[in-house]
Amino acid sequence: MSGNAAPIIIKRKKVVGGDGHHGGAWKVAYADFVTAMMAFFLLMWLLNATTEKQRKGIADYFSPTIAVNRVSGGGASTFGGDSVFTEESLAQNGTGASANKPTAHQQARGAMTGLEDTQQAESSTDPMSDIADILLGTGGDAMEATDTMRHIATRLTDEGLVVEIFDLEGAPLFKPNSDVPSPILQEISALIARVFSLTENDVAVAGHTRARALVVANNPVWDLSSSRAQAFREMLSRDGLSESRVQRITGHADRQPVVSNTMDVRNNRIEVTLLRSDLNDPN
Question: Engineered SS bond to 275: which of 31, 93, 129, 202, CB 3.0-4.6 Å?
């Protein structure tokens, strides 16, 4: 070999692949992003699909505070065992009482207080609604009671609680074309008198009948609706309702049907109204 030969230089080129994953940190970041977006769209859906009251309930569910008073009543119900009609059911200030007509041993008539916030004010129920719940809840599970309650419907109006008692096909309240009550109406009368005894509010009774197919000179529906209202008032009196609480008895004939077909038996009905006490309060 010649001593002047050039040395051989081997150059190693490092090849770096372009498809490397550079670790797994990006997967964690992407998962966090997807989770955040799912939570965001879920929040948007809840805001659109729920009411203000439902949203308040959801917020209270996640609230860290527990609204429990250290001093509470012994009962498990809303009023701690007290009746909704007692003076102690709601807190009052020194100026008045919750009753419209308080007796001598109660406080003077005035304003009611003790509602700390709007939510508590909205949760206070109308006593008329409580009476309706009691009336509709007294039927129990017996078949006879179920048949009785099928004839009863209630609604709240500005005048008071209206209890509507109506005919059903094959189950009339009175004998045909008379004011003689059926056994089912006698059961309903006893039920209403017992529930209405929980209050001292005045009562109004109204009779309604269905229209007749033929127009006659002396239409019997006027006398029939009035006599049926009078008969039901007498039934309530025999079942324990004080006669002094009945403020009026009216007969409306077929002038106020509740269904479009005026000759439908559903229009044969008695409406008993538990009047609001403030309507008769002179003050």
Answer: 202
